[in-house]
Amino acid sequence: MKIAVFGIGGVGGIVGGALAKDHPDTYFYVRGDNLDAIRRNGLKVESAVFGDFTVRPKLASDKASELGAMDVVFVSCKGYGLKAACEAISPMVRPDTVVIPLLNGVVVSDLMEPLAPPCILADGTIRVFSRLEKPGHIVQSTEMCSIVFGMKDGSRPAVLDRIAAVLNKAGLKTTVSENILVDSWSKYVMMCGNSVLFCYYDGPAGKVREDPQYQKVFDAVTGELIAVAAAKGVVLPAETAEKVAAAFSNFPPDAMSSLYRDLSGGKPARETELDHIIGRMVEMGRQTGV
Fold this sequence. Notes:
The protein has helices spanning 10-22, 32-41, 64-67, 82-88, 109-112, 158-169, 180-201, 205-210, 214-231, 240-249, 258-264, 274-288; strands at 3-6, 26-29, 43-47, 51-55, 59-61, 72-75, 98-101, 120-121, 123-134, 137-150, 173-176. It folds into 2 domains: 3-178, Rossmann fold (3-Layer(aba) Sandwich); 182-288, N-(1-d-carboxylethyl)-l-norvaline Dehydrogenase, domain 2. The longest helix is centred in the middle third of the chain and has 22 residues, at 180-201. Strand 1, helix 1 and strand 2 form a beta-alpha-beta unit. 44% of the residues lie in helices and 21% in strands. It is globular and about 50 Å long. It is of the alpha/beta class.
């Protein structure tokens, strides 16, 4: 099974690194200094789950035509790069290629459908805190690392289970979802809500929790996200808010979302996922009247 990971940043780096270590037919679509570093020295991974290792994919390139047609393509770009990513992956994608987005957002296939070439387009989520420390170097600092993917129409092509088996063998805890809409929204409630809090308090999890009233702010944000999901026809489990709050209370003090890391690091808003994550939520709230 030929598997390509498009985008070797925090998410793509941990997925691609784990796969390349165990699955010989793993390919990286990667650009710039990151590509140069991987070609010179391989991809260095420091992980609380997988340990520390350096690995080389079967091939790393910034040209999809060099990588060739794939059985599976994981898309792990930033949200603002999704249109360009859909165009760039075209030489790797056949009608029977499974394309799985693993990026921030909710039901990302809705955004990809008009842009991507004909393929088996799934939806996916990943729960992980990882980052590109420098070109060719990925750091994952917490033990949270799991993947869920599936088809939003409820179908379950057999190939999804074969993909999950490859990922699980590589140590990436993976589940094929029976209801990816619920899973996608559940992840989005956590990811978007966390980003709102980090930005509101202008600091990582430890600073947020210093405010004795932070739980009220947290509950208000989470409540609005759950209400929008319901207005979109997705009823989340009753324990969603409680689980999200419990997870946040256990984050390491320095934990932060990639969106807040980019904004606090001085990136212009247009070069971050602000619109893709929080802006999309605001727009859906307006659409649904929440």
